[in-house]
Amino acid sequence: MFLKRTLAALTVALLVGMPAYAQESHQGMHQDATAADMAPSSKAFAEANVRMHKDMDIAFTGNADVDFVRSMIAHHQGAIDMARVELEHGKDEAIRKLAEDIIKAQESEITMMKEWLAGHGG
């Protein structure tokens, strides 16, 4: 069930981010979608995924350190956003604990990376 929901969320994310002509050419592939595909959590995961990938699409500077940190801030924020979806919709206590741990760790790392960027012209 987890894999099916994950694949459904990824499918929605891909469709949301695809140009209209690509969506039309793939309509037939998604006719057998289930109710789980439209679940609020699936929509929230897809939105977080699209936002993360958009934010990771940075203008590269040629400085690998700066480019890495700027990309990773967006990547970590995506992890936080997805963990919050889990906390809002998830039921499994072990996974909810994982989501809480991810939020705590990723927020700390984002703070560190933003401080590093401020001191390194990023």
UniProtKB/TrEMBL annotation:
Protein name, entry field: DUF305 family protein family protein
> Ranges for the DUF305 domain?
27-117
Q: Where is the signal peptide?
A: 1-22
Keyword list, A-Z: Signal
Pfam families according to UniProt:
DUF305
Query: Which PANTHER family does the entry link to?
Result: SLL0788 PROTEIN (PTHR36933:SF1)
Q: Which organism is it from?
A: Sinorhizobium americanum
Taxonomically, the superkingdom here is Bacteria
